[in-house]
User: Fold this.
Amino acid sequence: MKPIVSLLLVCLLACMTNGSACAEEVTRVFLFAGQSNMVGADAHADRINDYPNFKGAGEPQSDVLYSYILGNGDEASKGWVLLKPLRSFGPEVTFARRVRQQAQFPIAVIKSAVGGTTVASDWNPDAPEKGQKLYPRTLKLIRESLQELDKRGVRYRLEAVMWHQGENDMLDRKLYKQYADGLTKLVARLRADLKAPELKWYIAEVSEKGIWGMDHRDNLGILRQQQEQALKSDPLLRWVPTSHLAFEVMGSGQPHYHFGTQGQLQMGEAFAAAYLRDIGKPPAATDRRFKSGLPIAKPARVRLFVLAGQRNMEGEDSFVSEIAQQPSYESLAKDQNNVLFRYSLGGGVKSSTGWEPLGPVDDLGNFGPELSFGASLRKSLDAKEGVAIVKFTHSGAQGPDWFPNGSAESHRNLYSKFISFIRAAQDDLKQQGFESSLEGIFWHTGENDTYFGPYAQNNAKWMKQLIDQTRADLKLPDLAWFISEQHKNAPWRNIESVNTALNELARTDPRITIIKTSELPHARLHFGTKGTLLLGEQMADSYLKKR
Assistant:
């Protein structure tokens, strides 16, 4: 055993980490298991510092033990080592980092993952002759790793399994309806073999933002039903949403099969957040709501603006930590107390519970065009009038998710939630004694819809259906819509045809305004920090010119 690991084990035995006494001496052992997205395919350790929120996350974690076997076995620790990214890395890196930041107990991670594997065969404990025989291999790894802790006198307990798997079961129509049964048997067998009947499992969602969320939408919907069936049957299983997290995009503009570097970093924190909530150690909650009523003098009218859409509207790759580096925008990193704000992000993963001052709120450290949009409107509109912004976004959503009549994959439906969210904002203002006017809905053309041919061909038609239905349901037949184009330098194919069709739609409806974006700065996939700030101003200018 390497000297540095021996030293850590001595520290664990003495219940000392980071130079201070542990609150609990028992080391909590976590098992990370699954297929390629658990391995960390297409996540690059040398790119970690490209993401402001994760600078330094690739450094070795001297207070976390790590035992692993990956792929065909070529990558294996052969005992305990210190946790750090390998050539690639999975969610274990930021999971451990976040848990150690918020909890005082020592932890250890055991990881067994192989790409392209199924619950039906490779992970099936009842069919060891099939597939890659991962169950016996994983069980052997766990037992040997725990035996080493026993030899060293380290007190431990098996804490939880972090699981991300299902893509290959989903792709095979002979297998996908067996998933709940297979996963349930796997969970029960591992608990029995480890003599850990209360062992919790955290099941991470197979992201709908990737290509499978489009070209295998129905298959993925069946897998989700199967996962929900397993979750309902076992109170010790937990669900971890991931479709709002970053997901890699290929050079062709095709959404990837893997989370990639940023997505893996975020998924580790998503696992950590779910676990920490379970043990009563969530991040400190901040009540951002206005404490003494809304900062608007009655009977002033409130102008209400709605921002909606997916990746760029949510703010992917726009980082709050970089706002201070943008001359004349520095103040936008702080709350704007003179602009009201309500939001539902990631399809409801992060939502407000009332009116808050406009400001950065995304747990991922991102922001959308709302910050500069609100600031620009506040400067230009009558100071006696209120300005309120409602933001409803899901970066992983696609056209069918917004269908007014819903889709076969009902868990993905957004339209009724969208309308209800707007109505709730209107009703709340009315209850507080304010007259409000819905000034317009601001929409950024969907990135996933632009790439995927069947969606791109129907994008303008679907937008018309969405626009018509919102006007009908909100009883505002003249409701203005402002649609910003996909940027010409974005990687998604079909950009020109999608933008052309939207401009044609606007020519038939004077209440639709198309916002040009081609002159704005743009990074590889998204507008980025500076581009998003300028996009918000462009949106405000479009409204001010039309009113």
Notes: The chain has two domains: 3-278, 301-546. The first strand starts at residue 16 and ends at 17. Residues 123 and 262 are 28 Å apart (CA to CA). Residues 13-21 have pLDDT under 50 and may be disordered.
